[in-house]
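Here we describe the complex-level prediction in full. Unlike the single-chain runs in Section 2.1, the two entities below were treated as one system.
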Amino acid sequence: MNLLTVIVLLPLAGFVLNGLLGRKLGPTFVSVVGCGLPILAFLATLKAFSTLQLAGPDAALIEHAYRWAAVGERAFEIEFYFDRLSAVMTLIVTGVGSLIHVYSTGYMKGDAGYARYFAYLNLFLFFMLTLVLGRSLLVCFVGWEGVGLASYLLIGFWFEDPAKAAAGKKAFITNRVGDAGFLLGLFLLYWAVGTLNMDEINAAFMAPVAPAVSASLVGILLFIGATGKSAQIPLHVWLPDAMAGPTPVSALIHAATMVTAGVYLVARMHGIYEHAPEASQVVAVIGLMTAFFAATVALVQTDIKKVLAYSTVSQLGLMFVALGVGAYGVAVFHVYTHAFFKACLFLGAGSVIHALGGEQDIRRMGGLARRIPVTFVTFAVATAAIAGIPPLAGFFSKDEILWFAFASAQGGSPVLWALGSAAALMTSFYMFRLLWLTFLTPSRMSHEVEHHVHESPWSMTSVLVVLAVLSAVGGFVHLPEFLEPVLPLATAQESLEHLEHRLVYVAIAVAVAGFLAATWLYRGGLAKGDALAARFPRLHRLLGGKYFIDELYDAVLGRPLHWVSDRVFLRAGDRFLIDGTLDGLAATTRRVAGRLGRIETGQLQWYVAMAVLGIVGCLAWVWRHV
Amino acid sequence: MADLQVLLWLSFALFGIGLVGVMVRRNALVMLMCMELMLNAVILALVAFSLRTATLSGAVLVFLIFVVAAAEIAIAIPIVLMLSRQKRSLDVEGYDSLKG
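The structure predicted for the assembly as a whole is:
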């Protein structure tokens, strides 16, 4: 039985059904199809997973679905590859995906585009599953582009608002930049290795005779693709804007699954990165910069979703730090825990926004803990998890990342650890700041809004509870060891091993310190925080303006491009050259025709004379030349 | 042989008269008559050559020209008739509605 193909095709069927029939058959049909098929896909994944477990740790299920193209001797096959790494990713995608579909039935209830929303969401799942299950990098790339498309469609879901449509475009175009790198990497790999099957590429790089291509170059090109999809510096600018989409979309695509595709890609191609220390170093440094700078920006954001967005960017940065120091399994571990708590946080934020009738500014919230208790408790658990309070899920994965950043034999260094810990400290601080300002401080809501506050329907709260439980206990599954047959464990430098326990205490201290600082500063409301901001106005403006990177890109890329498009291509090229040539030709023809028209006098005798002249001329020419 | 020369010169003269007539006269009917004259000049030349080479093809062509000339005049006369009715004149200088 073609189980893997079924897993991939179920959401596609949902897309087709909802897309074609959803509007006619009404919201009940849409909900059943939209949630039912992803849940079926999740069950099928569980079945496949149990088969995989029976087959042993090294095994991989390979399923041939279709021969895409045959070029000469070589063929491009659509094959699905299911080993422990893809199994973990598929379980996250279908599991968290199904939960968020269920949540969406409550959140999107009554929206005019209900059927369209579920069609897009199912389409996203289809492409995401193609991405994580594809055996060939080419199939993976199809999924990679497809999730970008789905992301574009869902960010601009409420496309009547020009700002939201623009955010969708920004995400799509920024991703395009990264995709160029990915594609070049694919070309190089195919040229050097002769296949795009990921397991074979890894094997080729592991072989005693490595392929005749610079692993670092390939690694960096693939990483450029990953920076686009996973919002790393310098291509991180699209993710905060992507919050324009519906909140469940932010949870599913822009927190739990799609943005981790870059991490998956690098982890999947670990065979290359293990032989490319330079590329790994680049990955680690970019990841660290992203983790640190995004965390600083998150400190001062006032939009609840923007805080979470920068937090996502920062956490993704930490995952890349782990990848950069060779701790691939740890990075996937953080992908897994992050999927739970960040989805929970986003969905909690969605529940808050839902309760407040669309309000997203935390300065106008407060005191929600009693009013929406389920949301509060789940949000608090997820906050503690991301802050790294033991024994919640985030503690385990983040602690391991920091440990390997410090001690890994493949590029760990105290600098990585120190800045990573600083990012963790800030994470803890801004998350608890968010918790205080949203739920605990005295209410700053307007009377009108306060009157309407209500807990979300069970379809939303039950999902929050499930995710909160997973955020709490998810860390006890020790994923790096489980993934060890696929992703080799990182090794710590022996000389540093005695420090491991001390660093765990430091990590706990860091998390608690962030909590205490946030409590001290924000327990009483906004006053102390504002006073602090007033003492450092320039720093506050720099952070609040997100380091003005959008403005920088606009000045360096946007405006020159606009100028060139307007002046060179539109005015000089299109209007002057192309229009000018055609208009000129037409005008010349008209003028010449006007002149020639004058010899048509209408006088018969004149015509006869011309004819005679012509005949005489012809005869004379014949006389001369024949 | 002198006969052929004479006949060709005659044909040439007729053609010339016809051509000059078409080019200088303004009366449409006169122009048509001059065109007939040119056709007849050509017929005369054909007959003369036919006589000279003792073949029949020239004479056959003459009949062809008769038919063409008859058809041509059958169309030209009504056209001139319509034009003269409309313009109340036979002067071709007035027939310039199609000028550019």
